[in-house]
Amino acid sequence: MRCGKCCMLKYSSGNVIHFSNRMCEHFDLKNGRCSCYSTRLSDSCVKVDLELLENNIELLPDTCAYRLLYEGKDLPCYHPLITGDKNSPLKAGATVKSLPVYSKSEYEESYNTLLKRQREEYWDADKAIKEGHKWLKKYKIRSVLSFTCPKKLNSKKSPN
Known about the structure:
- The longest helix has 18 residues, at 104-121.
- The chain is elongated.
- The strands form 2 sheets. The protein has a 3-stranded antiparallel β-sheet with strand order 1-2-5, with no helix packed on it.
- It has a domain at 5-99 and 143-148.
- It is α+β, with helices and mostly antiparallel strands.
- 33% of the residues lie in helices and 15% in strands.
- It has helices spanning 50-55, 65-70, 80-83, 88-91, 104-121, 125-139; strands at residues 8-13, 16-23, 27-28, 33-34, 143-148.
- The chain starts with 7 loop residues before the first strand and ends in a 12-residue tail after the last strand.
- Helix 5 runs antiparallel to helix 6 (125-139).
């Protein structure tokens, strides 16, 4: 479906999986897809296969087509296999492009810009603290999607 939700960094608490506002370093937010899709089977990528579906299905959002089909559920009405339009999930607002997420490169670029402004404008300590707080508020890692799992999970971070 190319929604990008499996490319969101995840963490768990109890039996809830939280999908954060930070994307995998390989996800291209501008194009809404993985920049290394053909070689994505690296350690940091979620490999969707039968083992994942049987043992760690919670790493996929509950809107994921692979998960829905495995669980015997219907695909959403906006899925490309239903609509015949590969852009229908984007039009329906069902991709990460509709969520407040950012990429590693955006985070790093913004931080470097902040430091450059600080040097060029000779900020005093008060202004540096004020601007730093604004930046931290924007880029703080937070949950933007959560899914409850039927089983209690170990508090572990996923590779992605």
